[in-house]
Amino acid sequence: MPDAVKSRYVIQLERPGERVDMEFVRALLGGTGVELDAGYGPVPVNPSLGRFVVRGFASPEARAVAERIPGVRFFVDARQEPAG
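Above: the chain sequence. Below: its structure as tokens.
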């Protein structure tokens, strides 16, 4: 799919009690069409809740498929530009 159709996201994963690494995330989101940023994540946001984030790119269709997985949420990852 053309990159122009994909958006950049921070993807939150809630996986209490599970060991979360990139291999786990690739397996979880495999087949959804989400492309992961291998250089970012998973970052523990709240390890006691099993909450982690990764960064990735997805089309609207891929996002919809991935969000059907329990504990997976998407947030727009807007690029920040320096002020001034």
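The first strand starts at residue 7 and ends at 14.
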